[in-house]
Recover the amino acids of this structure.
């Protein structure tokens, strides 16, 4: 009876541990696996296709990391030796996923060799969410600041431009100051472009008109604007559009601004000798994806995360403001969409934008 009861308890406990979706393992001081749950076996590298029972007394580095020696500077071992709980993040373990590893050493004081629980948790999604929240916060704060400054500068700047233009009209061509005055006007013009960029970013300018519009029309008219420069820069444009209109809700002008920002960046990335830009539109049930690929210089891995940050630029002073992608990001987010980037240095860059579809066309009007 007693034995049966213990067996019953054991099954209950194992059932509970197996129900945990995160990999869990109990290892001893010699890296031997003493117990593991089902998720551990499912996530393990497991080169010899061991089943769950055969895992017992295999080394953790063999079974989980696919190695034949302990991982360099094994932190589990360190936690075991120090006898303190610890946690860290790893990207190398499971196909580049962000894994949080938690170690609780010496869980069984009766054992000769101390036993340690290792718990692996996939936090990739949570991390991405945290990053986008942090970015949204940063954008909001910067937007307020930039918008305030831009508003303050806007009026005196308009004054400078107006007076410079008036003075220019009244000056004769041989006036000794005419060149200086032209300088003033053109410098003010440059400031105006920057201020408009800031206002666009802060979105403290005119409130947006939102309407239902055909994304394909928006794309075609935007591309028409870029034809001449693409030809001049020796860039081939490949466009794949679906046949039927793709309706979305929002501001056609702003989406066009996003596309222009991306294309301008692509053109810059190919300034050393042409290449190609491919634009594809892939509608699905509830959303549409716009993919813009270029065969330009690509983006270094370590800066890939920063490209949407306001004022982040790798371009020389005067050539980049670092606002193009920050503005694009905020426009796409306002359209309840998302924007992401993938890039391989020396091969090219792909931006993907996802926007929700306007499904009003599906509702058949009564009568
Ligand atoms: N298609 C691209 N190819 C290579 N690098 C790019 C591309 N798009 C953006 N970048 C990088 O991202 C940075 C930020 O872009 P953006 O916000 O448009 O600002 P800016 O163009 O003024 O530098 C660029 O300076 C560049 O380093
Ligand atoms: Mg740009």
């Amino acid at each position: 009876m007693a034995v049966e009861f213990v067996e019953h308890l054991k099954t209950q406990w194992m059932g509970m541990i197996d129900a945990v979706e995160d990999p869990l393992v109990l290892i001893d001081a010699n890296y031997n696996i003493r117990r593991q749950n089902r998720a551990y076996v499912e996530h393990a590298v497991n080169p010899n296709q061991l089943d769950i029972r055969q895992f017992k007394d295999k080394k953790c580095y063999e079974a989980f990391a696919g190695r034949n020696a302990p991982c360099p500077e094994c932190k589990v071992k360190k936690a075991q030796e120090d006898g303190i709980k610890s946690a860290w993040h790893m990207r190398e373990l499971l196909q580049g996923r962000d894994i949080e590893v938690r170690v609780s050493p010496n869980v069984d004081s009766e054992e000769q060799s101390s036993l340690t629980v290792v718990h692996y948790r996939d936090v990739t999604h949570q991390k991405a969410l945290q990053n986008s929240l942090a970015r949204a916060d940063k954008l909001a704060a910067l937007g307020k600041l930039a918008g305030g400054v831009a508003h303050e500068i806007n009026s005196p700047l308009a004054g400078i431009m107006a007076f410079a233009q008036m003075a220019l009209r009244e000056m004769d061509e041989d006036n000794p100051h005419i060149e200086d005055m032209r300088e003033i006007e053109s410098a003010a013009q440059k400031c105006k472009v920057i201020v408009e960029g800031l206002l666009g970013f802060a979105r403290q300018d005119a409130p947006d008109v939102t309407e239902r519009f055909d994304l394909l029309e928006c794309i075609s008219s935007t591309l028409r604007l870029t034809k001449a420069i693409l030809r001049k820069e020796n860039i081939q444009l490949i466009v794949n559009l679906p046949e039927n209109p793709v309706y979305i809700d929002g501001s056609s002008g702003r989406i066009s601004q996003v596309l222009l920002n991306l294309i301008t960046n692509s053109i810059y990335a190919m300034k050393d000798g042409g290449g190609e830009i491919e634009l594809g539109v892939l509608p699905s049930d509830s959303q549409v994806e716009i993919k813009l690929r270029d065969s330009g210089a690509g983006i270094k891995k370590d800066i890939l995360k920063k490209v949407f940050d306001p004022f982040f630029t790798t371009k020389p002073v005067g050539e980049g403001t670092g606002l193009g992608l920050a503005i694009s990001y905020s426009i796409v987010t306002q359209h309840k969409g998302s924007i992401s980037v993938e890039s391989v240095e020396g091969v090219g860059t792909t931006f993907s934008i996802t926007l929700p579809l306007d499904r009003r066309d599906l509702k058949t009007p009564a009568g």
